[in-house]
Amino acid sequence: MCETGERTSFHQHYPSFEACVAFHGHACPGLATGYRVATAAMRSLGVARPYDEELVCVAETDACGVDAIQMVTGCTAGKGNLVIHDYGKHAFSFFSREGRRAIRIVVSRGTMPDQSEMDTLRNKVFSGTADSREHARFNMLKQATLERILTAPEHEILTINEIREKPPRKARIFKSVTCARCGESVADAKTRVIDGSRLCIPCAEATQRKVQ
Q1: Based on the structure, what is the number of domains in the chain?
Q2: What is the pLDDT of residues 162-207, one digit of tens each?
Q3: Domain contains 31
Q4: Residue 70 belongs to a domain with what CATH number?
């Protein structure tokens, strides 16, 4: 991947896009979008990668860009400071607990050239009906879109607004109990009581299906 002066300016203090690609498994426009969102959020809030839950992200999609956000911002599902509400929207809210600030970043890619052609080819490629020429054209457009996202001026692809919402509550640590049916350990808050027995969710749902 080529390096331009502009790209260097927004990622010099964060993991590189290439590091995100290594984590995600492949390079794609979605991952590039998440990278721009993540670096913009860190810079806008003036925060460093958190040790714990000092920074929280609420993502409104579960698409590829979320991996770049985890890699760059340190907001991860396992740490409890990444919350995903899959509304299918490329919108992300970031909360700085220490700075008492919050922003919402919305991605706008509607002005991307060749977007309509790329969408048409994507459907053919994913359905297995594209020929070799169409595959090559799709890959070329995808790479060109990726590069545009990584190098475009921030205001052309992102809308950043301050918000007054409070951050989600901090992650809780639950006591482990044993499921009365499968015998496996489960967080007590994630159990259901069926006929007086505490069951894990899969066992509870299986029991309820049998009753029905």
Answers
A1: 2
A2: 999 888 888 778 899 999 999 999 999 899 999 899 999 999 999 8
A3: yes
A4: 3.30.1330.130
- Give the residue-averaged pLDDT of 56-77: 96
- Using the predicted structure, report yes or no on whether residue 26 has a pLDDT greater than 90: yes
For 33, the domain range is 5-162
Neighbours of 86 (CB within 10 A): 11
Residues 187 and 112 in one domain: no
* Apex 127 CA angle, 24 and 37, nearest 5: 30
Look at residue 17 and give its three-state secondary structure: helix
Whole-model pTM: value is: 0.80
Residues 49 and 147 in one domain: yes
Half-sphere exposure of 150 (CA within 13 A, CB side): 26
What pairing do the DSSP bridges indicate for beta strands 82-84 and 55-59?
parallel
Supply the DSSP symbol for 65.
Answer: H
pLDDT the model gives residue 63: 95
Q: Is the pLDDT of residue 30 over 80?
A: yes
Whether 15 and 116 share a structural domain: yes
Residues 139, 185: one domain? no
Look over the chain and give the mean of its residue pLDDT values, rounded to a whole number: 88
**Are 146 and 202 members of one domain?**
no
Q: How far apart are CA 187 and CA 51, in angstroms?
A: 24
User: In which residue are the tokens 């002005």 written?
Assistant: 111
